[in-house]
Amino acid sequence: MATLDDKLLGEKLHNYCSSSEGEDSDDDERSGDEEGETSYKSTEQANEPPPINNWNGSASNTGPKGVLEDWRRYKQLEAENRKEMEIERIALAKKLTLSAKTDREEQQAKEREEMEDELSELLDEEFLMKYHQQRMQELMSQLQKCPKFGQVKTLANKDEFLNAIDKEDAKVTVIVHIFNRKAKACTTMDGCLNVLAEDYPAIKFCRIEADVAGLSKHFRVDGVPALLVYKGGQIVGNFVQLATELGNDFYATDVQRFLIEYGLLPEN
């Protein structure tokens, strides 16, 4: 029999669900859905691959990008290694080239070192002073051994002319003036040679008249003044018609410069 509540709310049917019952059902369904989603997300996260980081020298994945990155890094290391090996090879080749010397090269290097040592000694100031003093002593000794003249000697005949040349020391330079008494340039030449004989005492100055020497009339007129220079019995200078070169009026310095230019007088 229906009660008042039943009248107000109506009869409970077989499929009737109260509001409280519905709420409980909704809560159960909602909690079930949430549990399902949580379970799904946990499964999905478990199946996801780990994140890809920048490669630091070891492969962390085998995907296409990872394989390419590994390959690039491998080629880079291979190139760097090849470059280092090439540098080492060149350095080793240079070292072997420098160290591998033949006997001839070693001998040349030894001689070069000896010459450098000798040069360093020459550059030494004390050594140079000693060398200079030694050379001065040698020159002074040679000058003392050489005969001294200091004046012009007149040769009276052909024999004296020959003896003045052939019997003189081979180191002595002999300068012979062939003159003509009537030629003005010959008189000037005699005065110049007197000055030079004093300035060069180691040089033998002589004079001989063209007639005494047996020279031709043409030479006596046009060939004088003439200078013949001998050393070791051999003629080393032959100058005729010097009036054409020097004129009639000239000085000792002109004759000196002329003979120095031909290397027949040393420079004072």
From TrEMBL:
- CDD domains this protein is in? Phd_like_Phd
Keyword annotations for this protein? Coiled coil, Phosphoprotein
- Ranges in a coiled coil: 98-125
Biased composition regions of type Basic and acidic residues, renumbered to the chain: 1-14
Q: Where is the Phosducin domain?
A: 54-267
Annotated GO biological processes are:
regulation of G protein-coupled receptor signaling pathway
Residue segments, region Disordered: 1-68
Q: Which SUPFAM superfamilies match?
A: Thioredoxin-like
- List compositional bias (Acidic residues) regions by residue number: 21-37
Where does the record place Polar residues bias?
53-63
Concerning its family, UniProt says:
Belongs to the phosducin family.
> Do you know which PANTHER family this protein is assigned to?
PHOSDUCIN-LIKE PROTEIN
Report the protein name in the record.
Phosducin-like protein
- Whose protein is this, by species? Papilio xuthus (Asian swallowtail butterfly)
